[in-house]
Amino acid sequence: MSTLKFKVEKMKCNGCENAIHSGLSEIDGIENVATDLALKMVTVTFSKNVTETEISSKLKAIGYEGILVK
User: Fold this and answer.
1) pLDDT, tens digit, for every residue of 33-50?
2) What's the rounded mean pLDDT across residues 50-54?
3) How far apart, in Å, are the Cα atoms of 34 and each of 25, 37, 49?
4) Residue 46 pairs with which residues in a beta bridge?
5) Which CATH number covers residue 36?
6) Which of 3, 29, 30, 47 is most buried as measured by Cβ atoms within 10 A of its Cβ?
7) For residues 41 and 66, what is the distance between their CA atoms, to the nearest angstrom?
8) Which of 23, 16, 15, 11 is nearest to 66 (CA)?
9) What backbone torsions phi and psi does residue 67 show, to the nearest 5 degrees?
């Protein structure tokens, strides 16, 4: 299992959180998506077969820019 955190500035409401949860959960290998609206953070836990690029691309596809937090 691996975990990545993304800063998502456009995440402003529960609808945004739901869209991000639904969208990222469609990726095969995603185990958990946790959002923190106050911090505008998305934490993704996934198996080894998922890449950072896949997650970022999916975020963009559903209308959100995710900046990887190291």
Assistant:
1) 999 999 999 999 998 899
2) 94
3) 11, 10, 19
4) 2, 30
5) 3.30.70.100
6) 30
7) 9
8) 11
9) -105, 120
Containing structural domain, residue 40? 2-69
Q: What is the mean pLDDT of residues 2-19?
A: 97
| Phi and psi at residue 26, to the nearest 5° | -70, -20
The alpha carbon dihedral of 48, 14, 40, 57 has a sign of positive
Both tokens assigned to 14: 């529960």
Return the structure tokens found at 30: 């995603």
Q: In what helix (H) or strand (E) does residue 31 lie, and over which residues does it extend?
A: strand 30-36
Which among 2, 10, 62 is positioned nearest to 41, based on CA atoms?
A: 10
